[in-house]
Amino acid sequence: MANAKVAVxxxxxxxxxxxxxxxxxxxxxxxxTDIVEGMPQGKALDMMESAPLLGIDxxxxxxxDYKDIAGSDIVAITAGVPRKPGMSRDDLLxxxxxxxxxxxxxxxxxxxxxIIVMISNPLDVMTYLAYNKTGFDKKRVMGMAGVLDSVRLRxxxxxxLGVSVKEVSAMVLxxxxxxxxxxxxxxxxxxxxxxKLLPKDAIDRMIARTQKAGGEIVALLKTxxxxxxxxxxxxxxxxxILLDQxxxxxxxxxLEGEYGLSDVFVGVPVVLGKEGVEKVVELPLSPxxxxxxxxxxxxxxxxxxxLKECSD
Length: 312
Ligand code: TXD
Prior knowledge:
By secondary structure, the protein is an alpha/beta fold. 44% of the residues lie in helices and 21% in strands.
């Protein structure tokens, strides 16, 4: 039987790191595309040359031609520009909307059966754009943000307590921006809620750091934004879908009444399996968190409106 196939659109920092991580999982052949001539081909060849040492046993190719994404089971979209210091994710709206519009037209043309995992920013709005332009079922268009935001919180919890990250779990809902909603009540260490292990001020500090974690890295790097953790997060979603693992992960998905929200793409816990987003899981939220989720969704809605205005 032929291997599964994953296309990674945009072979920049996040795209190339996602491709390498996926190749190391040995679950699909990988094709990377980019508009820069030679660059995806060069990076793919470099990765293939690491295969004997890294235990990679799938093919990795690079291309500038969308025809080569034909037959992809999943298309991970990382094309676009990243933030520079001082920029918000929403500042990327116009530039990336043009790029993503062109990319998704090509996905419809060349890989009409695929599942789309959006990674480009502003994440929730680009996921909406992909859904709207492709006409794909909502199960087949999702965005990666919550997995990244929650692994960042997991990492900060482990650092604060001085424990291994292994048994730390965390949940972050909402849009991918400063309005995201980390949920300490649903964050645990070996099943123990962190609210029983840490004082409120320490938890508040970690929540604030999680909300600004992308910006913390942008400020340190000065050119470009984070990519190791984003790539690991995107690969985890692809793995759950391809292997039908049914992992329960926070992902950006279209809501139709769940959490009292409709007609918006925002991060909530979902079950990811071979059909894509197979189920939205509704958690009971405190009135305060529920209000925060609503205001995060309102922020996404207003950015969707801005997008509609620029395309008018
Ligand atoms: O949590 C998340 N979802 C994110 C999102 C975490 C980190 C980064 N996030 C966003 O991903 C970021 O804000 C950007 O919008 C994307 C890609 O970030 P990356 O750091 O990989 O940017 P690069 O290194 O500049 O790579 C972008 C590549 C680059 O090689 C361009 O030549 C290419 O995109 N590009 C295109 N490829 C294909 N087709 C078109 N039209 C195109 N335009 C640019």
